[in-house]
Amino acid sequence: PKSILAKIQQLEKDGEGLMSTEELNLFLDLGAGVSSESKRAKRAQFIRDVNRVYQMRHGEDMIVREKDLNDRRRTFYVIHPHLSNA
């Protein structure tokens, strides 16, 4: 879908980085009116969609989940945009 491609372009433009759960919620516009369970499901679906498109294009995932080593309840989202040789 167009919205996924637009989000991928934004992530590529922002470059490699790390997002907290809260930052990813803001990026996806998941505000206060959305339940925690819905936010979790929408984040997971977004990551699956982005990685599926990225796998087809570049043969690798763009977003990887990593647990916080200091607090295993927290998750970080590592963004790995494909580096172009152009």
Keywords:
86 residues, alpha+beta, three-stranded antiparallel sheet, 3 strands
Quickly describe the structure.
With 86 residues, the chain is α+β, with helices and mostly antiparallel strands. It has helices at residues 2-14, 21-27, 36-58, and strands at 17-20, 63-67, 75-79. The model has no long low-confidence stretch (mean pLDDT 90).
Would you write up a description of this structure?
This protein has helices spanning 2-14, 21-27, 36-58; strands spanning 17-20, 63-67, 75-79. It has 86 residues and is α+β, with helices and mostly antiparallel strands. The longest helix is centred in the middle third of the chain and has 23 residues, at 36-58. The model has no long low-confidence stretch (mean pLDDT 90).
Main β sheet profile: 3 strands, antiparallel
| Total beta strands | 3
Please state the average pLDDT score: 90
Q: What shape does the CA trace take? A: globular
As a percent range, the share of strand residues is 15-25%
Parts with pLDDT < 50 across at least 5 consecutive residues: none
Structural class: alpha+beta
Chain-wise SSE layout:
Elements: H1 2-14, E1 17-20, H2 21-27, H3 36-58, E2 63-67, E3 75-79
Antiparallel strand pairs: 1-3, 2-3
